[in-house]
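Blinded run. Sample ID left blank on purpose so nobody reads anything into the name before looking at the predicted structure. Input follows.
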Amino acid sequence: MTICALLIEDNPGDARLIREVLREADAGHGAVELRHADHLTRGLEQLAGEGVDVVLLDLSLPDSQGLATFVAVRAAAPTVPVVVLSGLDDEGIAVRAVQEGAQDYLVKGKVDGGTILRSMRYAIERGRVEAARRDLERQRDEFFSSVSHDLRTPVAAIKAAIGVVLANEPAEMPSGLHRLLGNVDLAADELAGLIEDLLQIARLRAGRVEVWRSEVDLRDVISRAVRAIEPLLATRAQRLEMSLPEQRVEASVDAEKIGRVLRNLLGNPQKYGREGGKIGVILERQPDAVCISVTDDGPGIPPEEHDRIFERFYRVSESSSAGPMGSGLGLAIARGLVELQGGRLWVESARGAGSTFRFSLPIR
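Blinded prediction complete.
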């Protein structure tokens, strides 16, 4: 199979040398068709068409310098693999380029045609694997969304039926049967919540969640979220403390979505935290942002899992205030809703030292 490679390189000598070493490595088999552009803008014009399998990119061009060059190519053709072929032997830049999505970072003059050819082939293959992975994820999200929609109706019917039975149960109803009906009612609520989580994560992944901003006092948003969870705290003898500024803290946010973030963050320590433990909510005003923290005195989260707990369906490997028994969707949804509004959500925790979930929101 012929590889169509686009070389974006402004130095005519380097471009000629790369063409020659690739021809030698190809041994005349015609496996590589090399196109050439000497400016970033001209390279982007060629990428706008079809047929390019891989890009060989020099970061220093007449109209662009450094990692900004790679970012521009990546934005123009996110599915086309890019191999950086630079004259700059800088490990820091190389690592950053790979972190940004480059398939490889090669230094001109230190690699031969065979190395470049292999790098291109590997880049194309990895690109195919990544495309297949993305397609599988898309299919999975569509499946969850479709199934969740289908499950809503029977769950609503179960909930309505149980409600009618509980409202009209006879006085002589055995206590054991009454408890069973109550358990069915609670299970229907939990299932409805899980279905809503699946729908929300699918909408977030598909970019179908809209943000409805309004100027609100974040103290009110926090207070409403706390009131919703207060009845549950008593069941586990937990205490909740709030630290809110005396003055209004206004921000342009989607109050309903921020409320959901808070309910998710408060719900985890309430369900999985220490019996009789303490939960705290702190609101801080910063120069260009506001920061909301939810703290607990539970067993904490291992440092190596701080990033993973925000992944879909991930559950911590041991008992912690993040909750080992949930669906693994709550924190992923919370982070998605915060980032949708230009904010950031992270965790600070250590074994045996409790956890603090913080999220910051820009003041608009």
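Unblinding after everyone has recorded impressions. The chain has a mean pLDDT of 87.
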